[in-house]
Write a structure and sequence with these properties.
This protein is an alpha+beta fold. The protein has five helices and eight strands; from the N terminus they run H-E-E-E-E-H-H-E-E-H-E-E-H. Strands 1, 2, 3, 4, 5 and 6 form a six-stranded mixed sheet that branches. A two-stranded antiparallel ribbon has the order 7-8. A hairpin with a 7-residue loop joins strand 2 and strand 3. The longest helix is centred in the last third of the chain and has 14 residues. The relative contact order is 0.15.
Length: 192
């Protein structure tokens, strides 16, 4: 596995002057035993499966983490963290696959900067994935269908000749609720 925390520390150390952090009101005051202020580093987790050599049976699944605190022009390949990598004939078991990467969420790191030691909280604030990858991350068995959106109840429309599902924008969409998820799950289970 890849040491995402070590990679994150290295990037924060290299780019700390670009990370927008809030200074505490006491940051310019030197106090005995002063604790360094703490800033949250927000991460974006990205994943997708990629077929290798035109093979539908073998794929690679990388997990990338980008630091959202950095300006967009600095979120390049040199400032991207490789959290995990899976290669095989099946999709990864995401429970195991992401275990070490997800340990970063709600953790903290200490980084020695040129003039001080700084402590940062770490938060995975955003996940970017296409529908098949998102379904795998959410442990869904399929990613497409009439009501495939995990956020709303907007009904999909089947494309001509079975070319896929399309979801039109509707400003008055109904959001899914926990109660509705449970009721729909029970109804699906009862119908077999």
């Amino acid at each position: 596995m890849f040491n995402a925390k070590k990679q994150l520390k290295r990037i924060v150390r290299r780019t700390f002057e670009f990370i927008e952090y809030e200074r505490s009101e006491l940051s310019d005051v030197t106090l005995p035993n002063q604790r360094p202020f703490q800033k949250t580093v927000h991460l974006c987790l990205c994943t997708d499966g990629v077929s290798v050599c035109n093979s539908r049976s073998f794929s690679i699944w990388p997990v990338w983490l980008a630091i959202l605190n950095l300006p967009p022009w600095l979120r390049s390949s040199v400032n991207i963290i490789l959290g995990a990598l899976h290669a095989g004939h099946k999709k990864p078991d995401f429970d195991e696959f992401l275990k070490t990467t997800l340990k970063l969420h709600n953790s903290s790191i200490s980084v020695q900067l040129p003039d001080r030691k700084a402590k940062f909280k770490v938060n995975i604030s955003l996940v970017v994935a296409d529908m098949p990858a998102k379904a795998a991350l959410l442990f869904h068995t399929v990613f497409c269908g009439r009501f495939a959106c995990p956020t709303c109840l907007e009904k999909g429309v089947s494309g001509t000749n079975g070319t896929g599902w399309y979801y039109h924008f509707n400003a008055d969409f109904e959001l899914r609720t926990n109660e509705r998820f449970i009721a729909d799950s029970e109804a699906a289970q009862a119908s077999g």
